[in-house]
Design a protein that fits this description.
- The strands form 3 sheets. This protein has a 9-stranded mixed beta sheet, covered by helices on one side. A 6-stranded antiparallel β-barrel has the order 5-6-7-10-9-8.
- The chain has 7 helices and 17 strands.
- The protein is of the alpha/beta class and 351 residues long.
- The longest helix has 13 residues, at 324-336.
- It has helices at 52-55, 147-154, 195-205, 243-254, 264-272, 313-322, 324-336, and strands at residues 33-37, 44-48, 61-65, 67-69, 73-79, 84-92, 99-105, 115-118, 123-129, 136-140, 180-183, 208-214, 237-241, 259-262, 283-287, 302-306, 347-350.
- The protein has 2 domains: 9-69 and 169-350, QueA-like (3-Layer(aba) Sandwich), CATH 3.40.1780; 75-154, QueA-like (Thrombin, subunit H, Beta Barrel).
- The radius of gyration is 20 Å and the shape is globular.
- A hairpin with a 4-residue loop joins β8 (115-118) and β9.
Length: 351
């Protein structure tokens, strides 16, 4: 492969036939294909996701993201006039869940202070624009409104914009271990896990499992626009690393085991919590960590992931972990072998 500029956005472009964009998940979940990439040798193997039971060791630690996708898409009519309006909630701005960053349509025609009446009669108010985030506005619910209950009643689970013909139930876009409400999108690498596979990994292999939380935002799906990726302003996401996870990571490192991140959200959380001086801390934070080639991973030893969009920050994160050339060769191989791409698509295990 010829020498490339690793900071040039075009270096992260690739051709993907539209028919390889998965519209429905594999059934059962863990039957999806899985490309195994050795990040040191560049060698590839082709397995099924349930083969993780043969690739993981008792000394390993699997770290999962327990976020839950909320029914974050709301439809209503703007006041006055009654024209159609749509709100996609992205990130809660307070503990009462009454103020949010949100995508609002038609955003340009909605002035600050405009009300949107939802189907149950609740009126939410559109506020100011967020600088540097195209189309993102602040929206407010009336004080005292039980927002989560309202979302459960009238909200819709948002699917990524490239999933247009899915016949899968909305539950397919939720991990089997989702527990903490807050995501606008699923941590898709973990959609492949079944309860049975996780139980087998624990019971038969003796694998340890730890948890983090990262609430996924819309920025996950947006391509990087800057020609020089170093000028890109990465999206901010809220994440939590519990003290028991910190302890398990440190114990795993001491015994020579691997810390395996189930997805880019887990990798971003672990590395965000290790970014200062290389020593892991526990707690919560809003992370803006942008991982691209040149970044030195401090915690993650292996990565379970999906195949990501061209020019996306997630593809750059993976290239930083496994090396640009091995990753792009793997993507070229996956296209030629007709792997299924993106959220409902097949998996990679990079070790």
């Amino acid at each position: 492969m010829q020498t490339v500029d690793l900071f040039d956005i075009e270096s992260y472009n690739y051709l993907l036939p539209e028919e390889l964009i998965a519209q429905n998940p594999a059934t059962p979940r863990d039957s999806s294909r899985m490309l195994v990439l050795d990040r040191f040798s560049g060698k590839m193997a082709h397995r099924r996701f349930f083969d993780l039971r043969e690739l993981l060791k008792p000394s390993d630690l699997l770290v999962l993201n327990d976020t839950r996708v909320i029914p974050a898409r709301l439809r209503g009519s703007k006041l006055p006039g009654g024209g159609k309006a749509e709100v996609l909630l992205l990130k809660s701005l307070n503990t009462e869940w009454t103020e949010w960053e949100a995508l609002v349509k038609p955003g340009r025609r909605l002035r600050s202070g405009t009300g949107i009446m939802l189907s149950d009669g609740t009126v939410i108010t559109v506020g100011e624009r967020f600088e540097g985030a195209e189309g993102v506005r602040k929206v407010s619910f009336p004080q005292g409104v039980p927002v989560l209950s309202l979302l459960t009643e009238i909200g819709e689970t948002p699917l990524p914009p490239y999933i247009t013909r899915s016949t899968a139930p909305r539950s397919a876009y939720q991990t089997v271990f989702a527990a903490r409400d807050g995501s606008a999108a699923a941590p898709t690498a973990s959609l492949h896990f079944t309860e049975e596979l996780l139980e087998e990994l624990k019971r038969e292999i003796g694998l340890s499992i730890a948890w983090v939380t990262l609430h996924v935002g819309l920025g996950t799906f947006r391509p990087v626009q800057c020609s020089d990726i170093r000028k890109h302003s990465i999206h901010e996401e809220y994440c939590v690393l519990p003290p028991e996870t910190k302890d398990l990571v440190e114990e795993t490192k001491k015994r020579g085991g691997r810390v395996i991140a189930a997805g880019t959200t887990v990798a971003r959380t672990l590395e965000s919590m290790s970014a200062e001086g290389g020593r892991m801390r526990w707690g919560e934070m809003n992370t803006r960590l942008f991982i691209y080639p040149g970044f030195e991973y401090k915690t993650v030893d292996a990565l379970v992931t999906n195949f990501h969009l061209p020019k996306s920050s997630l593809l750059m994160l993976v290239a930083a972990f496994a090396g640009y050339e091995p990753v792009m060769r793997a993507y070229e191989t996956a296209v030629s072998m007709k792997y299924r791409f993106f959220s409902f698509g097949d998996a990679m295990f990079i070790c």
